[in-house]
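User: Fold this; tokens only.

Assistant: Input:
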Amino acid sequence: MVISLGSTSQDKKKFLADTLKHLKINAEIECLAVESGVGEQPIGQSKVIKGAVNRARNAFRASARAELGVGLEGGLEKIGEEWFLVCVAAIYGNKRQPFVGIGSKLGLPTEVSKCIEKGLFFGKLIREYRDNDKNSKSEEMIDELVTRENSFTEAIRNAFYLYLNK
């Protein structure tokens, strides 16, 4: 099986490859630069889902060989007064229906949330926060917010569970 990933990120390719291996799905992954249609920092779960679905559909349509397109999109969502990272995976193929998986939402540090409120960009903020934070208690959480590995892996797994059981 050939899967077209709607991203050229080698990290995202690794997350997908590792998850497929865990699910015992043998696939070749091709990476394609495609548009999400939601901007660089989508806000709100529905917009993050739209971005992942658009990436999956665009990757599938752009490939002459793919049986499936996969889109991965990360964004932010405000729940109450708190900001959260949300990672979404979408699968699109001949079944046409997008299959969407969502990873667990991870709360942002208060300092980062305040900057998000001012319209600053999360990716840069969280890396600066990591480089300046000396609180070892939050190191693992901050690393996850930077890499998003567990969040994307969970989202990919959830999307494939739906796809494989439909």
